[in-house]
Structure formats: structure tokens, C-alpha cells
Amino acid sequence: MFDSILVPTDGSEHATRAAEHGAALARAFGASLHVIAVIDTRTAGGPFSGDDLEDETLDRMTADAEETVAAITDAVDAAGAIQTTIRKGDPVDEICAYRDDHDVDLIAMGTHGRTGVGRYLAGSVTESVVRQADVPVLTVRATDRSRDTAPYDDILVPTDGSTPAAAAVEPACEIAAQFDARVHALNVVNLSNIATGSEYTLPKDLIESLESQGEKVTERIAARARESGVETVTRVVSGFPAADILEYADENGIDLIAMGTAGRTGLNRFLVGSTTERIIRHADMPVLAVNARDQRGDEA
After folding, report:
1. What is the residue-averaged pLDDT of the chain?
2. Are 13 and 114 in contact (CB under 8 A)?
3. In this protein, which residues make up the domain named UspA (predicted)?
């Protein structure tokens, strides 16, 4: 399924951890590994410089990028030779262009870049690539849980039964089969969508109906996983999706979360605050985000 994996890097610890996971998947699937560093000409020379940088500045940044790429190639154990490149321009545009030019099947990225302020920036390069890329994006935070790169023993596939959620099922099952992992199919009955007040009690028959629907959608995932000879677990809970997904992942030793994302809306923008986005920001383990906009018929 994965023949070519791209690892963008900015030299951060999170990017290095993502490269380690990308290399592990490359070894498992026999895929080629590509490492790219992009010199961000939008901000490098100040707010009014555009793409015109002084030669000295560009030379210094190119040298830094070369060191960053070399550090990644030294740090990871790839299946074969690693292809490296340095580009300049808008990082999101250059990463997506490289993906198109080289038929990349998977992008592995750190969720936090080198900002100097030690916190996550909404609207970061990683978020933008997740929104725009038409291939799965593996997002990784440098945490204790993400330190172990292989094998993945337990993979969580949250679902609400929608087409975007279903987009993650196939790659999750392929990875599970490759690592002989267990697939956990989880449905969270979203009480935030139907509860109208803190003192309002939902009718028991409504909850039971929604849980029954959840059992059906999780069983569909389990059936697909069993076709690949993968062990499965199904679970339906009532609560609040992001919080309950993270809690389930922590309590069940999940190594990887695979989720679909709706990508862009008809207004050509991302649904900020979505469950997938929150999981990417807060999960201690890697998250595989699979953009489903093509399946929904949206235009890029």
C-alpha cells in the first residue's frame, strides 16, 4: 500500500520522531524514504522581503537545511537509500508539490515545529498539509508513548459511520496486517450533539438506538479487518468524541490512531476544531489522518 514515504523536517525533535516512524513503515512495506527540508522564504527575510533573500542569508539557511536533512538520514534506519532534497518557498506548497512529483503514498510529520515558544501553533504547516494532501499524513508528537516505533500492536479506528471516518479503515487494516496488530473499532455516541442542557436527561430508548447504530458501524470495521486476518475489538461508549477517544487510547495501550478527516469544506477551508484536529494536537501516540474529500466529491 505504501511504496513511497515522505518525511518533511525542520530539525525539531518532533520531526525527528516522525522520521523514525516513517522509516519503520518504510521498512515494513519495503517503501522508499524521502526527506525534504523547505527554506521558508515567506518569513526568512522579514515581512516585506517576499521571496527575495540576500545571498548571504540564503546560503546560511541552505547550510542549516542541509544539516537538518543530514541529521535525519543519520538518525533513522531505512530499508534502502534515502532520497533527500532541499527546496525554498512556502513549506506547505513545496511539500504537497513534492508529493505530487514523486507519487508519495504517505507523509510523516511532527506536529510541533521549531517556534521558539514551546507550544503548538494552530494553522501550522502540519495542519495545513493534513488539510490539503490527498494521501494519508502520519502526525507524531515527541512523547514517551511515541518513542517506540515498531511494531504497532494495537491500532485504534474511531468511527461515527460517516464517509470521512471510513476513509481511515483501509490503511489502518493494511498497517495492522503488516505488523500483526489488533484493530480497535470505537464509536462514541456524541452527547454534545444531542444534549440540550446540564440537567437534561436523554431518553433511554434514544441512547440505546444510537448505541445500536454504533455497534453496526464498528462491526463493519471489524469485518473488514478480519478479511485481512487481523484480530479485532469493538466498543461503543456514550460521551464526547475527542476526550473519549484519547481516554480509550490511553487505557488500552494504543500505538496508533487512524482517523478520517473531512478535509476542506465547500468553502475551501478546514473545519477547525474537528475531532480529528483535536486528536492530532493532543494524542501522545502517532495519528494517521486520512483526507476523505475525494470520496465525498469535494474539489481540492
Report:
1. 85
2. no
3. 1-141, 152-290
Query: In terms of pLDDT, which residue wins out, 144 or 51?
Result: 144
* Helix H or strand E segment including 232: strand 232-239
Q: Per-residue pLDDT for 151 more than 90?
A: no
The top-level CATH class assigned to 4-142 is: alpha beta
Q: Where are the domains of the chain?
A: 4-142, 154-291
Say how far residue 21 (Cα) sits from the centre of its chain: 12
Enter the pTM of the model.
0.87
Grid cell of 197 as nine digits: 442542557
Query: Is 35:83 a contact under the CB 8 Å cutoff?
Result: yes
Fold observed for domain 154-291:
Rossmann fold (3.40.50)
Identify the burial level of 64 via C-beta atoms within 10 angstroms of its C-beta, where 0-12 means exposed, 13-18 middle and 19 or more buried.
middle
Q: What's the CA gap between 261 and 27, in Å, rounded?
A: 26
Q: Stretch 138-148: mean pLDDT, rounded?
A: 90
Q: Is the confidence at residue 35, as pLDDT, over 60?
A: yes
- CATH topology match: 4-142 vs 154-291: yes
Tell me the chain's radius of gyration from C-alpha atoms. 20
Q: What is the dihedral of CA 197, 158, 4, 122, to 10 degrees?
A: 20
What pLDDT shows up at residue 259?
A: 95
Whole-angstrom distance, CA of residue 9 vs CA of residue 26: 17
Cα–Cα distances (Å) from 260 to 24, 89, 175, 265, 287, in that order, read: 22, 29, 15, 14, 10
Q: Can you read off the three cell numbers belonging to residue 86?
A: 532541499
